[in-house]
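Can't paste images in this forum, so I'm doing it all in text. The chain is below; anyone willing to post the predicted structure tokens underneath?
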Amino acid sequence: MKLAVISLSDEGARIANQLQQGLADTDIFLHEKVAASFGGRRFKSIIMLTRKIFNQYDGLVYVAPCGVVVRALAKNIRDKRTDPGVVVVDASGRF
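Text version of the structure:
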């Protein structure tokens, strides 16, 4: 299963790195404001990134506020049988 982990913050980047260590075939996407010390591909807009990668992954894991994720996904959702699975995690990794 090919996964993408998307984060907007340094805290989220830490969680993304932990997830990548435990999950095979996982790519990390970090907002350009995240510290350069974190690896991963950089993006400027979560909406544009989601549009670009939506059909390239089996699952999308967002470490971001739920409202932001809903807005990013809104125009991409077509069918539950073909769309990737989506998980939203808060920046502290608790929920």
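The longest strand covers residues 26-31. Helices lie at 10-22, 46-53, 66-73.
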